[in-house]
Each structure stands twice: as structure tokens, then as C-alpha cells.
Queue: 2 jobs
Job 1
Amino acid sequence: MKLKLLGLTLIGMLALSGCDRIDPDSPLGKRKAIYQQMLDVKEDMGGMLRGRLAFDGDAFAAGAVRLDDLSRQPWQHYPAVKEEQSDAREDVWQREARFNELARALEQQTAALVALTSEQPVTAEKVAPAFQQVEDACETCHKEFRAY
């Protein structure tokens, strides 16, 4: 009897734990996946510049290309109305022109980083300021539009 009750309790907990999951095929799920990929790439690149990882110019340049590609993708996955589970502030939809302006600024910074990494040699000293501008563009948008 106790085992049966424990089993039912566990099944109930598992069922409830799945209720707050985000559908990976939803607009929110798609853009969260893109943002996570951006973060992963950015963390590796930042790790190279901050000494956590050995600097590899070719890997850094490849990361810049990947980051530039990713920086152009999440915007198409913002629906006309905010989803309930979104971390974005209502301002994304109320101040759409500003949001789009910051999205284009990020794209410009990632493109500038790619252009810089196409010039050999790719050194940490050469790319660090441009990478910081990419990080600053991310932070500016997060401060205005992400609900923490």
C-alpha cells in the first residue's frame, strides 16, 4: 500500500514538473535555443580572451562567424503578442522600433567582429575591443528588454 502511494505521488510529481516546459517548436522555444547557442559561442570566445581557454585565432574567427549568423536569427521568432512564459518585458512589443534598433546594432557589431577576424593574424589584443562591443550590445538590449 505504501509503495503504491509512493508510486502515485512520484507519477504526479513527474506529470506536474513537465507543465512548465517550453515547446521547442514554439517561437519562444526557438528563440531561447538560439540565445543559448549565442551564449555558448560567446562564452568560449570570451574564455579565450580572459585566459580561461587557450587563445586560438582560427577557432575565435570561426566563433565570430557563428555568432554573426546566430545574431540574425532570433528576431523572426518574436510573435505579435508576448507569450506567457517569456523573459522579455512588454516593452519588446510596446517599443518595437527601439527593440529592432538594438537588434540591428548587435548584428552590426557581430559583422564588424567577423570582418576583423578575417584579417590575419587573429590575435587576442586585436579582437578584444570588437568582442567587447558585441558583449555591450547584448547587455544594452538585456537591460532595456529582458525581465530578470
Job 2
Amino acid sequence: MKLLAGTTDCRNGNCPTAWLTAQGTVVVQGYIVSDDVVRVPRDIVDRAARELEVQGAGRCAATVPGAGGLRIRGEWIDVGGTPTSLSCPAGERAHEVPVSAVHEAAIASARGAV
């Protein structure tokens, strides 16, 4: 996996993060909200979308079975996706989502910030 965005004030290396997978999807590690949702700071998704553009991932069409969407919740984004087997600390989990979902959330985030 290739790092797209992470938090700068992380103390233990296991904080909200986004990676691009070899399959052209995005794995987002965040704080557990429910069985099928994790939450990350809005900035993580915004920076991940910018990095995807830089890396040429654009809005590729890779799909993720059972992937949910990304929903803006103030300064946070709830990520509904397919849970991964990535090892995370207590209270965190990683979900896999399509690249397009990251781009759509970043566009919505930018509209909400205006």
C-alpha cells in the first residue's frame, strides 16, 4: 500500500490514515463508530484525494464489494466500507473504499467549506 495521508500529531503511528492499494482502492484507518463505520478527520480525506490526483489515480473505477460511502459530519468524515484485516489498535479499524468515494467526499467537503 502507498501512503496518501496521515495525521501529523500521531503519537504511536496508528492514527487516521489513508493508503492507495495495488488494486486501485483506498484503505482508510479511523476510529470505530459502529460495526460498519469508522471516522476520520475531514483533512485526511481531502489530502488523500489531492494525493490521488498527483499519483494519477484520478477517479478510477475499481469497486469494492459491500463498500459504503463517505459522509461529512462537520470536521469529520464517516467512512462506511468493507472492513479489512489490517491490524489496528483498540478503538480503530480500517475500511476499504473505491477511489471515487474519496474524490466525491473531497468535492462535497470543499463545497461545504465555502
